[in-house]
Amino acid sequence: MSRFAATMLAIVMAGGILTTVGACTSIGPANSGPTASTATGSANSGPTASTGTGSANGGPAGSTGTGSANGGPTGTQTAEGVARVYPLHTNVVATTFWAGEIFDPKASDGSQVISTYDSQWLAHYGGCDGIVVNGDCQTEVRTAANGYFPTSMTPQENPFYLDLPFDDVNDPGAFARRASVIPWANDPGYAGRAQDQSFSYMKNRWVEITKGNRTCYAQIQDAGPGQYNDAEYVFGTDNERPKNTEFNSAGMDVSPAVNGCLGFGDINGQDDRVDWRFVEATDVPPGPWRTLITTSQVAP
């Protein structure tokens, strides 16, 4: 969650932290989510059984759920998928976060009840992306048995999500230069939106993440960790290191689904390292990450 979230977090906390997190109750049957996906694909292919729906790169139409695969453009504009190869970032520490998590109620970026792009992330996601224990939203082990989906609730958005340290909406420095540093800023559906603060170039974009012989895919839904204008790392071409020095100098947070899909050694640690790169929707293969695709844009 970006630094702007201090105000929103205060609003959430006004009703009581436990009250808010208590809303993360199970809203679906246990083990809901796709059941056909497995993690038995070939090396680096990730789960392969589930297929996705929606046109490549079509933008959000104001709602979440299945739909276009890269988010971004709205209305009648549609980005048709620009052929582009993105640089690989290697040996990056990835920590885990989840919708509904509150790891430091006193910190401006210590809650995942909201994200920098969605002031109602918890509600829009469908509740706690994990299990609720004594009013606390906690993470859980995810397995291929149900496509790495949560076991106690039915998500309304893609459970394969991540953040990267470039908040192109609420960080003033990042917002000012987003059109000049983001590679797809001039693609169809994105061009001309540089001054539109209700529009994010980052939200819903796809990222390919690899650990060992496993490769999984996820959509950006927040900014962080620790930094919010680190364009040199996020969009750099020389494998630059993250500016963040917290959490073992982590360069991204990933969701519990991605944690399980990649076989992290800890469900909430800071020692797992990954390689990652942006990908276009047309390069996202079938898998559980395409079962439910988030398409919503910024929700202030």
What does this structure look like?
It is a single chain. The protein has helices at 5-14, 17-22, 121-125, 172-181, 231-234, 256-262, and strands spanning 89-96, 131-133, 136-138, 161-164, 206-211, 214-223, 252-254, 273-279. It has 300 residues and is of the alpha+beta class. A hairpin with a 2-residue loop joins β5 (206-211) and β6. The longest helix is centred in the N-terminal third of the chain and has 10 residues, at 5-14. The radius of gyration is 17 Å and the shape is globular. The two termini are 13 Å apart. The model is unreliable at 2-46 and 48-79 (pLDDT under 50).
In brief, what are we looking at here?
By secondary structure, the chain is α+β, with helices and mostly antiparallel strands. It has helices spanning 5-14, 17-22, 121-125, 172-181, 231-234, 256-262; strands at 89-96, 131-133, 136-138, 161-164, 206-211, 214-223, 252-254, 273-279.
